[in-house]
Amino acid sequence: xxxxxxxxxxxxxHVLWATVRQYVATARPVGSEALLEExxxxxxxxxxxxAMGRLEKAGLLYQPHTSAxxxxxxxxxxxxxxxxxxxxxxxxxxxxxxxxxxxxxxxWSLEALLRGAAQLLSQLSGYITLITLPRSKASVLRxxxxxxxxxxxxxxxxxxDTYETESTLMxxxxxxxxxxxxxxxxxxxxxxxxxxxxxxRGRSLQEINTLDWSExxxxxxxxxNRLHDSLGEIRRRTQHQLGMPQLLVSGVAEVLRRQxxxxxxxxxxxxxxxLEEDQDQLLPLIFEEEPADADRGSYPNVSIRIGTExxxxxxxxxxxxxxxxxxxxxxxxxxxILGPTRMMYEDTISLVEATAHHLSEAIR
Length: 364
Fold this sequence. Notes:
Blueprint: H1 10-26, H2 32-38, H3 45-57, E1 61-62, E2 71-72, H4 74-84, H5 89-102, H6 110-125, E3 128-132, E4 141-150, E5 153-160, E6 165-171, H7 182-200, H8 205-209, H9 221-237, E7 247-250, H10 252-258, H11 265-276, H12 279-286, E8 303-306, E9 318-327, E10 330-340, H13 345-363
Antiparallel strand pairs: 1-2, 3-7, 3-10, 4-5, 5-6, 8-9, 9-10
């Protein structure tokens, strides 16, 4: 059963908003005097202290030390994200322009493009960027080519729409090697390649594996079984990718340099172990087709896990903002930004949402 929503009056909302903004900017506990200096609240210091006290009782702020000011709790950030902020349109437009200008969509491989996008986002946000490569089960055949290697051996080359390439060798069903006409065989293979591209282009390996190969026609029967086996071999070779996709990580140095929360060695070691050795635990959180906070309806295309909302202990002092990118209607990959809960949420949400949209449009 979800918790009862906390109701705040306008003044409490304004004080919570200002406290989060001030703490994000300074990384220091916030007092009433600081809010008076930085924000036009039009009330006395005593009134601000009273509002902060009520927010603390509601569990939205807390004091790290008795004599210190207050900082937002995970619940305070959640109220801030769901009710008090608007993502930055300026940041969204900026990242789309930079992605278009700095990444070469014509000549680079898809992996190089995604690595470039990850580096750009980590530079803009100051946080760790996580991007998954498209999953093979969502990839479809873009081109197939049969190339004669030996008189009785053909290489089957498959290019996916992700521009990944796989190949395997296939023995030809030729009984009499003395009668082989190499030129005629190469012409046959080219005709067969064209025929297969016409029938198979746009299909996934899973679809191809269940085709009725007898429909390819009697003139191609001598190739059909071996082609089926060859494509089955390629499908098995990529089977390990059908579950969790490869994860690209960028920005660890940015976080260490710019975020004081990552100055503690133990915290850094736990995060690095998660990123380097325990990706199988991290990937399901990043690649989830249903956003973690979808029921809140604030950002239907973005998942935002704040602090203890993350099930993995190393991430419980962090926020993970993630979104899925698509090819058509199929979810094929994801982008996430991982940083401290003291995060510039307006910019981060816009960065993630705009990048996911840009990638979906670019690979379509």
